Amino acid sequence: xxLPVTKEQAGQRLDHFLQLQCSDYSRSRLQGWIKDGxxxxxxxxxxxxxxxxxxxxxxxxxxxxxxxxxxxEDIPLTVLYEDDDMVAIDKAAGMVVHAGAGVRSGTLVNAxxxxxxxxxxxxxxxxxxxxxxxxxxxxxxxxxxxxxAAHRNLAEQFxxxxxxxxxxxxxxxxxxxxxxxxxxxxxxxxxxxxxxxARLPQGRHxxxxxxxxxxxxxxxxxxxxxxxGRTHQIRVHLASIGHPVAxxxxxxxxxxxxxxxxxxxxxxxxxxxxxxETVEVLSPLPPKLExxxxxx
Length: 296
Description:
Layout: E1 2-4, H1 14-21, H2 27-35, E2 39-41, E3 44-45, E4 57-60, E5 79-82, E6 86-91, H3 108-116, E7 139-145, H4 148-159, E8 164-172, E9 179-183, E10 187-188, E11 196-197, E12 207-215, E13 219-226, H5 233-240, E14 263-271, E15 278-282, H6 287-294
Parallel strand pairs: 7-14
Antiparallel strand pairs: 1-4, 2-3, 2-4, 5-6, 6-7, 8-13, 8-14, 9-12, 10-11, 12-13, 14-15
């Protein structure tokens, strides 16, 4: 990858610049590439602390990670919809979608392989069938492809913004407007790798629309429609307007007894890959969230 340094980016450290420009990679991987000489500034290897100048050209030669493979595990799953092409799962809060840093088992992928045997291979050995993801502590409906053809079709629908995803969330504070739209770019937070931010001018385009369902004394229940699927999008966008998701301490919410954050993927609408017929799958609000809300 070749990344030119603009006037606005001049003065940034090399490692901070890479964290913003290569947000799909972890900080430790980027630091390792710098140390291994896989990151060059104007053709020369430099330290991570090197301050960039306007007109510098950064060349990045990514090193692949050793591949992981998923194995079947007998973990209970709730199936909301199934046909020959795909399946829609009601993902529980706390379940990781696929193996990654620090997680090697107990994932949704492990459970899917045990339940269905074979899934699409389009996303690789580590993520068979996985077309999109939900955060670990977000519950609700998630689509899984059984065949490569279905996977490609669904991926094209997501890329073309033809999939309608609606979430239910409870946020801190009383949201005054009955409805609104948040359109802010989302980028990796240069000060905390685990977070995203909507406070930087650069980032990936993202928009979220919300509608108030119910107001409480110190909380508001919202229905949120997202037109893009960025990492932590709803959590970041709502926190950016002063209404963090209940229980989401990463984005500024005070501690709650929930043990998770109050965010649920309530419905998803898409075209069935083979027939083109419109399918909408609904996931009811988990009893734990319903009971906690009723206790307000």
